[in-house]
Amino acid sequence: MNLEHLGIIHPKAVYRNLTVPELYEHALERKEGVIMNNGALLVKTGKYTGRSAQDKFIVDSEGVHDLIAWGKVNVPVTREKFNAIKSKMVAYLQGRDVFVFDGFAGADKKYAKKFRVICEYASEALFIRDLLVRPTEEELENFGEPDYTLIACPGFKCSPEIDGTRSEAAIMIDYEAHTIIVAGSQYAGEIKKSVFSTMNFVLPLEGTLPMHCSANMDPETKETAVFFGLSGTGKTTLSADPNRMLIGDDEHGWDDAMRSASTSSRKSSRRSIARSASARWLKTSW
Fold it and tell me: Mind listing the pLDDT tens digit for each residue in 226-283?
């Protein structure tokens, strides 16, 4: 896979959409984590054990300036600073293994977006493989160019004095360039939230309301219940009703129906499209 158009020149190797066993092997060989007694891969994320909201920036460009509520949450950054950090990140990847995952955010093909996630770590590629909707062999063969590209380099540390960041970490989105960068943080949740942030910006422009909620449905009446709440307040627990169909437990889109997606077997009904693995990984629900 050639990534030179992104500035990633002469990587050691590029691995695209590897299987779970292959990603495990690479992660263990590279000492990114250890296998727990239940078979899960345990990764210590170092300094950042959660999202670093104060290190998140959005490129303030002419095309999006009037569409974003700028402030403490949506902090602007110039495209020049964004491109400067991105250039350093892709240079950093030269001579290193690169793990690529091509997948979809969104179960409903009408709203789904193609994401190409380029990772320094195999464990992060495993994470996003479990998060996004995995393409079929035919979809992967015909994937083409992505709608959005995300580059994650935990090993690249920003210099606040030189790069104009708050810390060594930087999570930046350029909506017009359809590019996202995650630097300096090994917490893979930054990748997830960057995908969600992108969809939160895009979907309202297409007539869909993105929501941070869980949802389930009565299999007979098709009535949908929506549970709102901050992380850790019980959305997953409340939506996991054995007598109702689980649509999803974290992120959804709503137009004339509830839309949800994640990573395993597909289930469908008249008013919902859901993919379900475990409740923990029912994500990217558009």
Answer: 999 988 899 999 999 999 999 888 888 888 765 554 433 233 332 332 333 222 223 3
Query: Is the domain of 95 the same as that of 143?
Result: yes
Answer yes or no: is 286 within a domain. no
Residue 158 and residue 244 in one domain: no
The Cβ of residue 71 has, within 10 Å, a number of other Cβ atoms equal to 8
Asked if residues 106 and 126 have their Cβ atoms less than 8 Å apart, the reply is: no
Whole-angstrom distance, CA of residue 41 vs CA of residue 27: 9
- CA dist., res. 45 & res. 51, Å (int): 11
Domain identity same for 200 and 253: no
Burial profile 160-195: b = 16 or more Cβ within 10 angstroms, e = fewer: eeebbbebbbbbbbbbebbbbbbbbbbbbbbbbbbb
> Which residue among 161, 187, 205 closes a domain?
205
* Residue 164 backbone class (left: φ over 0; alpha: ψ -120 to 50; beta: rest): left
| Chain-centre distance for alpha carbon 206 | 20
> How far out from the chain centre does Cα 241 lie?
27
CB 148 within 8 A of CB 179: yes
